[in-house]
Amino acid sequence: MNALIPTAWAQANAPSTSGQVAPLLMMVVFIAIFYFLLIRPQQKKAKDHQAMVSKLSVGDEVVTSGGILGRVTDVGDTFVTLEIADSVRIKVQKAQVTSLMPKGTLKSA
Prior knowledge:
It contains 3 helices and 5 strands. By secondary structure, it is of the alpha+beta class. The protein has 2 domains: 17-55, no CATH class; 57-108, SH3 type barrels, CATH 2.30.30. Strand 3 (79-85) and strand 4 (88-93) form a beta hairpin.
């Protein structure tokens, strides 16, 4: 029986390459899923917001991130002046404008 033990050790299986590729393939799949479900939509949303902010003009009715509804009276490089009531104007950063409202929204609010 002693003669069989060294023979058993000598018959070790050859290393399997498929066992090394599977974890790498799973990692690539997880990164692809992460990209398409999280990163890509965020980039698209940021791009759309930047386009909306760059197209702001006098007379547009907007909502800020703080929930303030106002009409744009002046557009600068980094700031926008909003009229939130008669003769009440505030200056906010352009990036804080979250959405453009349809014309006439301010009158009904």
